[in-house]
Amino acid sequence: KMHTSRRDAFRSINTLPYAQVDIKGNVTPLRFYPVKNPAAKLELWNAFEKRVALVKIHPGFSYRQLEFYEQEGYRGIVLEATALGHLPINTTDDYTKDHELLLVVVKRMVEHGIVVVIASQCPYGVVDLNVYRPGRKLLEAGVIPALMTAETAFVKLGWVLSKYNNRDEVRTAMMQNIAGEIPERIDPRAFLN
Fold first, then answer.
1. Least crowded by CB within 10 Å, which of 30, 33, 42, 177?
2. Dihedral sign computed on CA atoms, order 156, 135, 59, 106
3. Residue 102 near residue 55 (C-beta atoms within 8 A)
């Protein structure tokens, strides 16, 4: 939803719309929705790990804010970072002197088995931690890039952690396109369609 109250508030993110619904509820298909595997059996997994958090990164964000989730026994955290997945982890002056400690805490969380996922605050596009050096440092620390919206990453992480305990299985499941949450290709026409 892209607006709090407009009737046309709903938008398809990173894809073109599949259908249009008018005020009377009439559905007009706009394009074909490809079924990935029509022979696949639907699997219902109705468990959800509640010890998962979604945290928005902001100016002045402190590593101490993450320590709360570590101390409270959370199993996973989605960090809603800026742009391509940026976190304030570089020290440039007195104001930013603690920023490097954020990377230290993220590394420690991963080492202690807490799954850390990096999503973007931008509704369109996907995280790419390979573009800039700080992103590569996060990858080296063991974070998982979310190739989906932050809200979707939060729900998916709760579902995945209820199903898997092994770090590699969790990473694989988070990077696997299960229900169309990871765009195969982003059509440029999909931006603010």
1. 42
2. positive
3. no
Residue type, 121: Q
Mean pLDDT per block of 10 residues along the chain (193 residues) reads 83 84 90 73 86 95 95 98 94 90 97 98 92 96 96 97 96 92 79 71
What's the pLDDT score for residue 193?
A: 63
Report the DSSP beta bridge partners of residue 144: 117
Find the length of the chain: 193
Tell me how far CA of residue 33 lies from CA of 29, 69, 94, 123, 134, in angstroms.
9, 39, 53, 22, 37
Number of Cβ within a 10 Å radius of residue 131: 13
Residue 147 sits in which domain range?
A: 52-175
Strands 27-29 and 19-21 turn out to be antiparallel
CB contact at 8 A, 136 and 129: yes
Structural domain includes residue 21: no
pTM for this one?
0.89
CA 48 to chain centre: 16
Integer-rounded Cα Rg, in Å, for the chain is 19
Helices (H), the chain: 63-71, 99-111, 133-141, 150-163, 167-175
